[in-house]
Automatic annotation (TrEMBL):
Gene3D superfamilies: MetI-like. Keywords: Amino-acid transport, Cell membrane, Membrane, Transmembrane, Transmembrane helix, Transport. The keyword Cell division does not apply. The chain crosses the membrane at residues 12-38, 59-83, 188-213. It comes from Streptomyces cavernicola. Residues 14-206 form the ABC transmembrane type-1 domain. Belongs to the binding-protein-dependent transport system permease family. HisMQ subfamily. It is a multi-pass membrane protein. CDD domains: TM_PBP2. This is Amino acid ABC transporter permease. It holds the Pfam family BPD_transp_1. InterPro entries: AA_ABC_transptr_permease_3TM (IPR010065), ArtM/GltK/GlnP/TcyL/YhdX-like (IPR043429), MetI-like (IPR000515), MetI-like_sf (IPR035906). It comes from the Bacteria.
Length: 221
C-alpha cells in the first residue's frame, strides 16, 4: 500500500518544517516582546510604531509577506541574509517572513498579559525608583508571560501550520513534498491522510504540553 513512498524523504521534509517552526518561533517571541514593550511604552513615537506595525502586518495575507521576502528582498534588493546557496537563502527568507508575520500575534497575546498585571504593582515599582525598562523587565513581563502561555501555544500551533506557505518560494518543507507527490502519484487521498497525520503529530503534543505548562505557571489572582 505504501510502496509509492519509496523515493520520497518524508522525514527530511517534516524536519525542515520543524526547523522553520523553531527558528520562526524564537524570532517571533523576541520581536513580539519588543513590539509589546513598544505598545505600552510612554514614548508616543515607539507606541505609534508598535501599533502601526501590528495593525498593518497582521492584516496582510501571509502568502504576500512570504512572496515579498523572495521577490522584494532577494530578487529586487539582493538581500541574502548571509547565505550562499539558493536553498539556504529561501529558507532564511521564509523564517524572516514567518517571524515578521507571527510576531504581531505574539505582541497582541503578550500585551493582553501585560494588561492583567495590577496597576498598583507598577505604581509601587515606580515609587521605589525603578524606570520603565526595569518595571517592564522585573515586574510586568514575568507575570505577563505566565498568564499567556495558553494563547502563545495557539500562536505556535498556527505558526506550525503556516510554515506550509514557505512552499510558495521553493522551501522544501512538508507541503512542497506533498504537492510533488500528488503531481506524480495517483494516491491522492492516502497522501493527504499521511501529511495530515504528520502535522497532527507535530501540533497535538505541542498543544497538550503547553496547555499543561499554562496550568502549572498561571498567575493566581
Amino acid at each position: 500500500m505504501f510502496d509509492f513512498l519509496e523515493g520520497y524523504d518524508l522525514l527530511a521534509a517534516f524536519w525542515v518544517t520543524v526547523q522553520l517552526t523553531l527558528y520562526s518561533a524564537i524570532g517571533s517571541l523576541v520581536w513580539g516582546t519588543v513590539l509589546a514593550a513598544m505598545r505600552v511604552s510612554p514614548v508616543p513615537l515607539m507606541r505609534g510604531f508598535g501599533t502601526a506595525y501590528v495593525n498593518i502586518v497582521r492584516n496582510i495575507p501571509l502568502t504576500v509577506v512570504i512572496v515579498f521576502t523572495s521577490l522584494g528582498l532577494f530578487q529586487t534588493l539582493g538581500v541574502t541574509l548571509g547565505a550562499k546557496d539558493f536553498t539556504t537563502i529561501n529558507f532564511r527568507l521564509a523564517v524572516l517572513g514567518l517571524t515578521a508575520y507571527t510576531s504581531s500575534f505574539v505582541c497582541e497575546a503578550l500585551r493582553s498579559g501585560i494588561n492583567t498585571v495590577p496597576v498598583g504593582q507598577t505604581e509601587a515599582a515606580r515609587a521605589i525608583g525603578l524606570n520603565f525598562p526595569q518595571v517592564l523587565r522585573l515586574i510586568v513581563l514575568p507575570q505577563a508571560f505566565r498568564s499567556v502561555v495558553g494563547p502563545l501555544a495557539s500562536v505556535l500551533i498556527a505558526l506550525t501550520k503556516n510554515t506550509t506557505v514557505a512552499a510558495a518560494i521553493g522551501v522544501a518543507e512538508a507541503a512542497a513534498l506533498m504537492r510533488v507527490m500528488i503531481e506524480n502519484e495517483a494516491q491522492l487521498i492516502l497522501i493527504s491522510v499521511i501529511f495530515a497525520f504528520g502535522f497532527i503529530c507535530l501540533t497535538l503534543p505541542t498543544g497538550l504540553f503547553l496547555g499543561w505548562v499554562s496550568k502549572k505557571v498561571s498567575v493566581r489572582r
